Amino acid sequence: MERLEKNFMWMAAANVLGSLFSITLFVYLARTLRAEAFGMVTYAHSFIFYLLNFVDLGLSTYGIREIARNKGKISEYVSEIVSFKLLIASSIFIVFAAATFLYCPSAGFRIIMLGASLLLFVSALSTEWAYQGQEKMHMVFVSFATTTLLQFLMVWALVKGPDDVLKATPAYSLAAFLIPVLFLINFRYRPKLDFAYLKQIKRYLASSLIIWLISIFAQVYNGLDIVLLGLFRGPEEVGYFTIARRVIGGFTLLMVFLANALLPRLSATFSDNIRQFSNATGKFLKLSLSIMVFVFLPVIIFSDRIVSFALGGEYLPACVPFKIMGLGLMTLLFNLPFSTGLIAAGFEREVLKQVMASASLSVILNIFLMPKYGMIGGAVSFLFAEILAIIWILRIYRKHIIASQHS
Q1: Distance CA 18, CA 22 (A)
Q2: Domain residues of the chain, as ranges?
Q3: What percent of the chain has pLDDT over 90?
Q4: Helices 3-56 and 274-291 sit at what angle, rounded to 10 degrees?
């Protein structure tokens, strides 16, 4: 079996097993907390997940690329990047904590929000990207499987009913610290804060900024809709919509993991071996289509039964927005191999334009549709944003990649 296939398998296994524990935890919390308390927890996590992009700043992808080129400097890259991300996480946490105390309506909700915000530091400490740069994808599997299992066990031990809602987010966050700390010890992490180090980070950021902006705008139309819905509708409807959104997000995350497994190889082959570049992209496309046909379509078809069995009849309203967003996910699964190829080939600026356009369309549609149609309006907004994305990406890919192959 070729390394590319092994990388795909390990990344897929990491996502599948991690998702299994996460889904089990998701179902447990939904049943244990009930709709209103569950809506508060999911709203807090959705808000924090959006902020996590500001911790990374595209440095993880930059680290993957640089470590793939020079594996001997892995400890240096880990020390420099993690130190800077900790500085950013601390700054965001201070501002977020101050805003929480000023604007949160109750002391209980403040605890929920602050517990979720500890994930900022988990993100800063995480170094799975370093193993990806080494193409040691089995360590990514170890990280995701172990962390999600620990999160489930911690929450299961502490949260037994709606009265325990204040324990949910702190338990979830604290359980995620163990593996990042062990990985940092393995990489011989040394904190860096001197002036020369900051100059080096400035150089890193110059290269990672465009990739970071892509992730920021992608998050706008892949997560901000839950936050916006919380402004227009109550916690119960947010809980319903979050169920649909998390399933869509789970499939998206799987494909992003697979894209990260492919990115180093695509980056190395675009200039030197365009045939291998095309073959790798083709394999990714076939895999995406296979997942769409054999995994996702059955989930859409039987979504009512799955939701009723897993969560109970109370959550059946989540099925309608899920089916609408499912159509958008199909276009995303087809889109991702081509957008990954464009980034690997150095056309990330073109991808950024597409993501900005889709994010803008999503926000505008959500603002107009959510006040009247609620979560259905959010689902329709996602669908139209993804339709725009696939049309845009295919046009760019044909212009820059296919044209270069025939020149």
Answers
A1: 6
A2: 1-207, 221-407
A3: 26
A4: 80
